[in-house]
Design brief:
Radius of gyration: 18 Å
Strand order of the largest sheet: 4-3-8-7-5-6
Distance between the termini: 37 Å
Length: about 250
């Protein structure tokens, strides 16, 4: 299945021109037995990393089948800097739509990351009979034996969907590795906290804050010690990227 039409986000990386419902439908239409391919969702922090030459996240994005815009902030910066809007397909919304509309109780589902409580909550909420969990150790992408164990887990029980929740860029790098592994099938998604939102383990921002592009603020206020650096330090250079794109367009 070919990639859908894309446009460069702030001159950094091409992303699909799909909203969440369109993206979920496209992902669900992919045959379960098709060669393994994966989905990534770009937020401001990712875009900053992707703008750095040679960063491993860029190789993972370039090898992805479907690249989506996860951020209303990026969509608005694109409009300001390039004069073009951008559809938003957050990983959380795409994941929710897949579970609510497209995943059947007997579909084989794999979760890499998380814990037994998360897996049981997903089974209970959606009546899933074939969900399996693999919990790799901390820093697992730097441990060849841990990576091989995760691949063996997926090879032993092929899944229609593989949800990887071990954080960026580990999740994306692992999906890239899976796509390069002969014989694997299904569709993988790097979804961050989306599964925890889905089962109510972590509260998601109210709808009005999501629509206003303030979901990041809600999360920051909810977990300031864990997230302040992500938003205040690691994501803020996206403003310079947008400024550069604005100047380039008026070159």
């Amino acid at each position: 299945m070919e990639r859908p039409p894309e446009r460069a986000m702030l001159g950094v990386i091409p992303l699909a021109l799909l909203d969440a419902e369109q993206a979920a439908a496209l992902i669900a239409a992919r045959p379960a037995g098709a060669p393994f391919a994966y989905v990534v969702t770009a937020n401001a922090q990712h875009l900053v990393l992707l703008d750095r030459p040679g960063h491993p996240l860029r190789a993972a994005y370039e090898a992805a089948w479907l690249r989506l815009n996860d951020s209303r902030i990026l969509a608005r910066l694109s409009r300001l800097a390039a004069g073009e809007g951008f559809p938003v397909a957050t990983g959380s919304d795409v994941t929710r739509l897949l579970f609510e509309r497209h995943i059947a109780p007997d579909d084989p589902i794999a979760v890499v990351g998380g814990d037994a409580a998360l897996a049981e909550a997903l089974r209970a909420r959606f009546g899933l009979d074939a969900l399996r969990l693999h919990a790799p150790p901390m820093g697992w992408m730097e441990k060849p034996e841990a990576v091989e164990a995760a691949i063996a887990f997926l090879r032993a029980a092929p899944a229609r969907f593989v949800f990887v929740v071990t954080g960026a860029p580990q999740s994306e790098r692992f999906l890239q590795r899976l796509a390069a592994t002969e014989g694997l099938t299904g569709t993988g998604l790097a979804v961050g906290s989306a599964l925890r939102f889905l089962v109510g383990e972590v509260a998601r921002a109210p709808g009005w804050m999501q629509r206003a592009g303030l979901e990041w603020l809600y999360r920051l206020l909810s977990e300031p010690r864990r997230l302040w650096r992500r938003y205040a330090v690691e994501s803020s250079p996206v403003l310079a990227i947008a400024w550069r794109e604005w100047r380039r367009g008026r070159g």
